[in-house]
Specification:
The chain has 354 residues and is an alpha/beta fold. The protein has 2 domains: 183 residues, Glycogen Phosphorylase B (Rossmann fold), CATH 3.40.50.2000; 152 residues, Glycogen Phosphorylase B (Rossmann fold, 3-Layer(aba) Sandwich). It has 13 helices and 13 strands. The strands form 2 sheets. A 7-stranded parallel beta sheet has the order 3-2-1-4-5-6-7, sandwiched between helices. Helix 7 links the parallel strand 9 and strand 10. The chain starts with a strand and ends with a helix.
Length: 354
């Protein structure tokens, strides 16, 4: 069986990282895998196995019947009948799903890497109905990343038979934080985008001890420069914004704790990666991270709230100084997210849709 995975690019994001890891694992297990991408841009392309086939094709975001017909013709030319198509984004799933609803040619697996969102209004109601129809056919399979996300989509969107399979990480590495600083140093990794809440982090850092330093790594140069300028305007010397890094584990091991200030996060791969390096995690109460973090491996604070985040930074720093966290125990809490463990669920899922 050949599996076709749609992705927009290879930039340093959780969805792209999950795609590369899954594709590499599947080819190791003997599956044929083709990644269909819109842009080859991004560092993660370097980590892709040479056994994975790649093709460039950009799915349009359209409701035009003529363009949809052309899309159908193009997809039938690229993807053989009875193949499995794995969709990561809502647009990919909606465009392919509506075609497949009519021609019933492929088996779809849609991973909710991003939540299905609908704006208020009549047209949005029609869009919700369409998504519900294409989701609940026998040829569509939906995977949620957390129990909260599954419950939300079943009740709000009306999708049925949603299975929870969390994202996964490379657990087999030797990077672990064993630092002993008097003033703990924090790290955050993610896209420089509104979702990630780095503007909230800036406001929070104005309230914390100036000896506590937080470094942020990510891609999105324009937003990075804007945040850097804002930090200068605030007179902050304890928060820095850098470009993306390829080896996140090596980078994480140089710090004492991880911060995820996101406004929303279906899973948060980097949270599990930080835990695997022995770092306690300070996260906002997003869908995915609340399934991962507990009192033994971190702290959960209110999202979109600088005051709550500032208190959390002070609290996790004090706990580290007082020796309340054990790096090896924290690492063990991430073991269940190892690619070798979680990917088995994908293998079973693929066998069930074959």
């Amino acid at each position: 069986m050949r599996i076709y995975i749609f992705i927009w690019n290879f930039n340093f994001g959780g969805v792209q990282k999950h795609t590369v890891l899954l594709a590499n694992y599947l080819v190791q297990c003997g599956y044929g895998v083709t990644i269909i991408y819109s842009s080859k841009e991004g560092e993660l392309f370097q980590l892709l196995s040479s056994k994975v086939e790649i093709k460039e094709y950009s799915l349009p975001n359209t409701n035009n019947p003529i363009k949809l017909f052309r899309l159908s013709v193009a997809l039938k030319r690229i993807i053989p009948k009875n193949s499995v198509i794995l969709c990561n984004g809502p647009n990919n799933f909606r465009q392919i799903g509506r075609i497949n609803f009519l021609i019933r040619r492929w088996k779809l697996l849609f991973i909710l890497q991003n939540d299905l969102e609908f704006k208020p209004g009549f047209l949005s109601s029609l869009k919700r109905l369409e998504v519900r129809l294409i989701s609940n056919t026998s040829l569509s399979n939906i995977v949620a990343l957390s129990t909260k996300q599954k419950s939300d989509h079943e009740s709000r969107v009306g999708v049925k038979h949603v299975e929870v399979i969390p994202n996964f990480i490379e657990f087999d590495h030797s990077y672990i934080s064993v630092l002993d600083r008097q003033c703990p140093k924090g790290i955050s990794i993610g896209r420089y985008a509104y979702q990630k809440g780095y503007d909230i982090l800036l406001e929070a850092m104005r309230q914390v001890d100036q000896n506590i330093i937080v470094d942020v790594f990510g891609y999105g140069e324009d937003e990075r420069l804007r945040l850097t300028q804002k930090a200068k305007e605030y007179g902050l010397k304890n928060v820095n914004f850098y470009g993306a890094v390829l080896n996140v584990y090596e980078q994480l091991a140089d710090y004492d704790f991880f911060i995820l200030p996101s406004r929303f996060e279906p899973f948060g791969i980097v949270v599990a990666e930080a835990l695997s390096c022995g770092l306690p995690v300070l996260t906002t109460d997003c869908d995915g991270p609340v399934d991962i973090i507990n009192k033994k491996n971190g702290i959960i604070v209110e999202k979109d709230n600088p005051d709550s985040l500032a208190k959390g930074i002070a609290q996790i720093s004090n706990k580290i100084i007082e020796g309340e966290y054990n790096a090896l125990d924290i690492r063990k809490s991430a073991e269940k997210y190892a690619v070798e463990e979680v990917a088995l669920a994908y293998l079973q899922k693929l066998k069930s849709v074959d």
